[in-house]
Design a protein that fits this description.
Layout (H helix, E strand, L loop, with lengths): L4 H19 L3 E2 L3 E2 L2 H12 L3 E2 H8 L3 H13 L3 E5 L7 E5 L1 H23 L3 H23 L4 H7 L1
Antiparallel strand pairs: 1-2, 3-5, 4-5
């Protein structure tokens, strides 16, 4: 069963918006481009410091080996540190560094700039509508993060 047309339209707009924002991925002077996976992991480590590799992988829907490799790169850049768990020496915990937090803020500001500029070019009504939708879009994002891949398709066909 397909989505109602207004939901499909919203899905299309969000996908295109996401792609447009993604294409404008910032390159920081002295750091170079940071792949999307590493950006997402850095934010997740900042949001949940002390997470394990497995927890990070689960939170972002990534494979553990890919997360391990990306964390090695982030650690090599000085953005995160890996620590042995005091409870179980077999477990590695990942924490952000001050440099990682600073870089994340600079990247977030860099991404916000073209969005801010685009918003300024919209009508007051459109700006207000988008600002009012921010909370609902954040809730949608959280809901999408917990839906297992394929689950939405199953629910839609029932």
């Amino acid at each position: 069963m397909s989505l109602p047309s207004h939901q499909r339209e919203l899905a299309d707009v969000l996908r295109e918006l996401g792609w447009t924002v993604h294409r404008r991925s910032p390159e920081r002077a002295g750091v170079g481009p940071i792949p999307t996976t590493e950006l997402a992991l850095l934010k997740q480590v900042i949001d949940a410091p002390g997470s394990t590799i497995g927890e990070l992988a689960q939170a972002l829907g990534l494979r553990q080996p890919n997360v391990s490799a990306a964390i090695r790169v982030l650690a090599g850049r000085g953005f995160v540190v890996k620590e042995t768990s005091p409870k179980d020496r077999r477990i590695t915990l990942v924490r952000p560094t001050a440099l990682g937090r600073s870089e994340h803020e600079a990247i977030a500001d860099s991404w916000a700039a073209p969005i801010r500029e685009a918003l300024e070019g919209l009508s007051a009504d459109h700006r207000e509508a988008i600002e009012r939708a921010a909370e609902a879009l954040a809730a949608l994002h959280e809901r999408l993060r917990v839906i297992e891949p394929g689950e939405a398709q199953v629910e839609a066909s029932v």
